[in-house]
């Protein structure tokens, strides 16, 4: 009989879930990448909310959710197991990118409430898929280049001094 060796998956291993939201204007996709299993989810247009039922076998849970701005937008409120929860949120004109980081294995419920649903937006250009298109701020790009040049010069000067 051969021995078998196994290794636990990393806490940061991501499972991709594509949560389809059906509206009168079509089907939209909310993407969720997480290190836990999504048992079920629901979307309530009247409440402008998404509820995610999940089950985690890990103590440290991590998820990234991409919500199209043409489905839900505005001010968001988050709850984890009926408790206020404040995730990290980034956005552009196409998506909200939400990072959830919480502890505790077992069953959990995440509730996301928005202030605007697509009915409130008037005419919006809809798409069955979307591309993440973050814009690079030229000012920040220049700062990073200058910082990189400065670090290279400092390494060169320090190396010359050490050699002397």
Describe this structure in words.
This protein has 164 residues and is of the alpha+beta class. The chain has 2 domains: 119 residues, Jelly Rolls (Sandwich); 29 residues. Helices cover 16% and strands 46% of the residues. It starts with 14 loop residues before the first strand and ends with a helix.
Features:
single chain; 164 residues; alpha+beta; Jelly Rolls; 2 domains; 5-stranded antiparallel β-sheet; 12 strands; 16% helix; disordered N terminus
What secondary-structure arrangement, pairings included, does this model have?
Elements: E1 15-23, E2 26-34, E3 37-44, E4 49-56, E5 60-68, E6 72-73, E7 77-80, E8 83-85, E9 88-91, E10 95-103, E11 106-113, E12 116-117, H1 138-163
The number of helical runs is 1
**Whole-number average pLDDT?**
79
According to CATH, the fold-level topology of the largest domain is: Jelly Rolls
Summarize the biggest pleated sheet.
Answer: 5 strands, antiparallel
Poorly predicted spans: 1-9, 119-137
The strand line-up of the biggest sheet is 1-2-5-10-9
Shape verdict: elongated
Rg on CA atoms, Å: 22 Å
Q: What is the CATH class of the largest domain?
A: Mainly Beta
Distance between the terminal alpha carbons, to the nearest Å? 63 Å
The helix fraction, in percent, is 10-25%
H/E series, N to C?
EEEEEEEEEEEEH
Strand content: over 45%
Number of domains: 2
Structural class: alpha+beta
For the secondary structure, the number of strands is 12
**Architecture (CATH level 2) name of the largest domain:** Sandwich
Outline of this structure?
The protein has 164 residues and is of the alpha+beta class. Helix content is 16%, strand content 46%. The chain is built from 1 helix and 12 strands, in the order ββββββββββββα.
